[in-house]
Amino acid sequence: MKAQLILEDGTIFIGDGFGSHMDTIGEVVFNTGMTGYQEILSDPSYCGQIVMLTYPLIGNYGINRDDFETINPAVKGFIVKEAAEFPSNWRSEFTMDEYFKMKNIPGIAGIDTRKLTRIIRQYGTLKGAICSIESDPSEVISKLRQTKLPIDQVRRVSTKNSYPSPGRGKRIVLVDFGMKHGILRELNKRNCDVVVVPYHTTADEILQLRPDGIMLSNGPGDPKDVPEAIHMIKQLLGLVPIFGICLGHQLFALASGANTVKMKFGHRGSNHPVKDLTTGKIAITAQNHGFTVEEKSLQNTRLAVTHIALNDGTVEGLKHLDYPAFTVQYHPEASPGPEDANHLFDQFLAMIEDQKQEVSTTCQNVLI
């Protein structure tokens, strides 16, 4: 079935529809990963967005039960050059078309994804619609220009209730702003006793759980649209060690007095080089974000830059100069992508242990 991809600037692509036949509107973004399309489509950070993959062949190893980052995908649509109809992999259970129909996700294939990428890189992210070939382009363009992008993405994808993921190690409260399951897997792998809580959980409620550390997860949208989380982080700074990833990194920066700004087209892919300013080492990282911490806004804060993106020099990591807290803009849990930065989870647990020993030493000195 033929379908249209229409952008708010009037650009029209004609392709082949797959998955759901429903019309959809969202912010069109691109991801440069060569593999990992299943993890990408199930990443909650894409809530409200239509994702275009720059790699031309997608779906060739099918959809399996193990590689999801959430149970119910939040993407608005998928754009590919070629959607494989006959996947070949021993784990494959569904084709993309079959899975997208089950989850009511519209897709379009057979368009010039290189041209679309160049448009986004030149003009920035644009609103777009995947719709029927019978739809009137002028009406769709008018609707796109009037449509306001949602600001409640975190509410949509965050867990509604707290739940445990038990272990016998350190108690970690994981604040779910749109958490990828990869983060939880890495904490479970280290035997952490994890409690996942909703994005609007208060600082007092978190402290009642007696955490050894707090993890701020990834998530979709503008961090300034989650003021309750910024307030919560402000209250927790200095009380419990904190590790933030992606949106959690941005929220931590805002809570510490810095500013965030929207990027022209963002970082989305699994091949982004990041430099650790402490060691000088380069890591190839997985990224998915459309906002960044404004470097000049850090001047009057107690935050120091620890990592930078080599492609454009943007801030990729921060640490607090007074409190046990650090964050990164990229995804150390990968899924998909390289695991160069996986050690940051160990660094977080080591920071918690150091903080415990410091508190213990202080208490002993007071007693003496």
UniProtKB/TrEMBL annotation:
Record-linked SMART domains: CPSase_sm_chain
Q: Which reaction does it catalyse?
A: L-glutamine + H2O = L-glutamate + NH4(+); hydrogencarbonate + L-glutamine + 2 ATP + H2O = carbamoyl phosphate + L-glutamate + 2 ADP + phosphate + 2 H(+)
Q: Report whether Electron transport shows up as a keyword of the record.
A: no
| Positions of the catalytic residues | 246, 331, 333
Residue positions annotated to bind L-glutamine are 45, 219, 221, 247, 250, 288, 290-291
User: Matching InterPro entries, A to Z?
Assistant: Anth_synth/Amidotransfase, CarbamoylP_synth_ssu, CarbamoylP_synth_ssu_N, CarbP_synth_ssu_N_sf, Class_I_gatase-like, CPSase_GATase1, GATASE
Where is the Carbamoyl-phosphate synthase small subunit N-terminal domain positioned along the sequence? 1-131
Q: Which domain of life is it from?
A: Bacteria
Q: Signal sequence span per UniProt? A: none
Annotated EC: 6.3.5.5
Record flagged with keyword Membrane: no
- Keyword entries, A-Z: Amino-acid biosynthesis, Arginine biosynthesis, ATP-binding, Glutamine amidotransferase, Ligase, Nucleotide-binding, Pyrimidine biosynthesis
Q: How does it assemble?
A: Composed of two chains; the small (or glutamine) chain promotes the hydrolysis of glutamine to ammonia, which is used by the large (or ammonia) chain to synthesize carbamoyl phosphate. Tetramer of heterodimers (alpha,beta)4.
Which protein is depicted?
Carbamoyl phosphate synthase small chain
Which organism does this sequence originate in?
A: Neobacillus driksii
| Underlying gene | carA
